[in-house]
Specification:
The strands form 2 sheets. Strands 2-3-4-5-7-6 form a 6-stranded mixed beta sheet, with helices on both faces. The chain has a 5-stranded parallel beta sheet with strand order 1-8-9-10-11. By secondary structure, it is α/β, with parallel strands linked by helices. It has helices spanning 4-7, 39-44, 53-66, 80-90, 94-102, 122-128, 158-165, 175-186, 190-193, 207-218, 241-250, 279-291, 304-321, 329-334; strands at 29-31, 46-47, 73-76, 108-111, 117-120, 141-144, 151-156, 195-201, 225-231, 256-264, 295-299. The chain has 2 domains: 38-165, Roll (Diaminopimelate Epimerase, Chain A, domain 1), CATH 3.10.310.70; 175-334, TIM Barrel (Alpha-Beta Barrel). 40% of the residues lie in helices and 16% in strands.
Length: 338
């Protein structure tokens, strides 16, 4: 910030002088998109590696051997393209392939690394009551057999995923599991990478994660600052906002806050271009969130035509509430809205 002589005027009685021996000093980095809570997956789930039914079975059975009393099994890392190819080659549905791997008596739900598709076995779908008559949730898809219409076991996007996940004996990690995951996650941040602040866009309903963060903050164990984005359910619109306000007031501390909202606007690569929200519901929800002084964060990967739908929701919020000090005016200056 200048030469040594220029810095002398800033010295005081309590100034600490550190000689960097010619090294560079940088401010802490801000990680602007990190699902930190997913560290729990690698710690408590089966991690699938090589795309092979035999490999998947070996890894799953090795995991079950350590937990013989398990009431469910969760896994991460399966390859969607490979499973669809195997289903076509064997004449068995993906659900039946997973039955072969884990057995039929225990519900199993595996998720891809991208987290936009899950692979459920027969028991998991039965527990959730998913049949050929089950409609696709808004913006989400239940893969079906083209001849019979029966669900195959592949569910795309969070509205469909949550059907089977919510019916599991343990839909979410426990508070202690989340605490252990965050403590593990932090070991990779400031000490190794210089990250001192993280934006965490939560993508499913999880009060236990917020409870874990509150406990760690109370115990002075958070070593970086966290901006936690509460997840907005596209099926609930404005009715869920009082719950967001309640959580914002309840879950806050020295090193974390929950005053932002994550909205999932469009589907991932497997459903590219699918708009998840009803547009009128989106506009009213964004406007009410803005009125309640939340920051709104929208996941949108395109195509370009969908960007305007998301921007239209911000425009509607500004029309209803007027401009304020938040993240959106820069965008709208470019559209000449304010």
């Amino acid at each position: 910030m200048g030469n040594n002589a220029g810095l002398q005027s800033w010295r005081g009685e309590d100034t600490r002088i550190i000689n960097l021996q010619g090294k560079s000093l940088l401010p802490g980095f801000v990680d602007t998109h990190n699902h930190a809570y997913l560290r729990a997956e690698s710690m408590y789930w089966v991690t699938l590696t090589t795309p092979s039914l035999e490999s998947y079975k070996q890894e799953t059975q090795a995991f079950l051997a350590t937990q013989p009393e398990a009431k469910q099994i969760r896994g991460v890392g399966w390859n969607l393209k490979y499973i669809l190819e195997q289903a076509a080659a064997t004449g068995r549905s993906p659900a039946q392939l997973l039955d072969d791997i884990v057995g039929k008596d225990i519900p199993a739900v595996f998720i891809t690394h991208g987290h936009h598709e899950v692979w459920a076995n027969t028991r998991a779908m039965q527990n959730a009551g998913i049949t050929k008559a089950t409609p696709n949730p808004p913006g989400a898809f239940i893969d079906r057999d083209p001849v019979t219409g029966e669900p195959t076991g592949i569910l795309r996007e969070f509205g469909a995923q949550n059907l089977v996940i919510s019916a599991l004996p343990q839909p979410d990690f426990s508070v202690d599991e989340y605490k252990n995951a965050i403590l593990s996650f932090q070991q990779d941040l400031a000490p190794q990478r210089g990250v001192t602040s993280v934006i965490v866009p939560i993508h499913y309903p999880t009060d236990t994660f917020l409870e874990a963060m509150q406990a760690l903050d109370n115990e002075n164990k958070l070593t970086v600052r966290y901006d936690l984005l509460q997840w907005a359910d596209e099926n609930r619109g404005t009715e869920q906002i009082p719950g967001f306000v309640e959580r914002r007031d309840k879950y806050k501390g020295k090193f974390f806050k929950t005053d932002s909202i994550k909205i999932f606007g469009t589907g991932a690569s497997s459903t590219y271009g699918s708009v998840v929200w009803n547009q009128e519901t989106l506009k009213k929800t964004v406007a009410e969130l803005d009125r309640q002084k939340f920051r709104v964060y929208i996941h949108n990967i395109g195509p370009t035509s969908t960007y305007n739908l998301m921007l239209d929701a911000f425009e509607y919020a500004l029309q209803q509430n007027g401009p304020r000090d938040h993240c959106c005016p820069t965008i709208f200056h470019k559209r000449k809205l304010i």
